[in-house]
Amino acid sequence: MPLPARPLLALLALWTALSVLAALRPEALLDGWKLSGAILGGLALLDLGLSWLRHPLTLERSLQGTLPVGAWSEVGLKLRNRSPWPRRVEVFDDLPDTFAFQDLPGSLRVPARGWTEFRYRARPLRRGPASLGACHLREASLMGLWRFQLRAGAPSPVRVFPNFSPVKKYAELAVGHRLSQMGIHRRRRRGEGREFHQLREYREGDSLRQIDWKATARLRRLISKEYQEERDQQVVLLLDCGRRMRGCEPGQEAVSHFDQTLTALLLLSFVALREGDAVGLLTFGSEARWMPPRKGRAALDDLMERLYDLEAGSEASDYLAAAEALGTRLRKRALVVLATSLHDEDDDTLAPALALLRNRHRVLLASLRDPAPARALETPVRAFEDALLHGAIHEDLERQRLAFQRLDTRGILTLDALPHELPIALVNRYLALKRSGD
After folding, report:
1. Helix and strand totals (H; E) in the chain
2. Is 237 found in the same domain as 223?
3. Which of 51, 59, 95, 357 supports an S-S bond with 153, CB 3.0-4.6 Å?
């Protein structure tokens, strides 16, 4: 749709001012005023007509079909001009309301019979299906008297997945044995583990328990047993999708605690699959989804598909019902990772479910720690009300510490971490369990 541009509005304002002078002295200025109006109108119509005859701009958008929530991704826009004149265009892409962006709008010069490319960054803030609409373009006419508001390009459907950036980073660093840069502590010692691998000659540094005395006596030289970490185990993710997981950091562009939990579980799954274990999933709370334990890259893809549009609901989670549901589906002993947000009042309701799981499986309770109390304790105490608040927070933290202590005495492994710390802490705990053989 063409709109008058500033130059045309300025000329119209000048022509209107001349009409006042022409009214005062018609014998001297009226003919000139009419002529100037005719010229201005003719130029405006000519500019409009020539601009309409130009070939329309074409736009191509380059964008991955899957995007990680909470992470910046690059979007490319390629504008092509088939006209014999260069064109200057302002670009603003049609992003969903749940996307943050940088470097928009953009101002581009598209050469005659050529093309130019523009890139900006987008950050989806919510998982699930989304779509980028046709791009908004604003362009001036040939003489600059008109401004056109255009749409170009086709809609681009995308799917916003849990943040898999840590998975990519882990894979890249693992190739170069640089996982310590990510905070991952493997500390694997050659020859140690729980699963027998092979016999070999004794090497300096081998422990006495590694020596195979029968083979040593038979061959008359020291022979050591070499072990490796157990493989072909099962890791089952028991994910709480209830109202306890609906927390979020302050700020419009913050990623929810539930999304950070999904990031941690994806990274754990990737590491477990690389270690030769099978990974399964059971969600409970707002929605129940089940994936039997599987191995290989297909298992990670299947897990992503099952999690990408899952949201934490407003319902209270039933831990015991989830434990019973898992018991009917999973017969083989596994490491069950229960991801939730534990409060001290949950202890009585959680205990029967953990006891039921503990009868058959190794259980790791990974609990999200609410960062709000720690932030509140950073504020200085200036009044009696501040002292009461600090005292109440310390009392609540002590109750939570005692709740975890009670779980430890019952043989339940526990992990209490802030949402952004959970991915690395969970992987390190899993690798430590692999080394110990539990």
Report:
1. 11, 19
2. no
3. 59
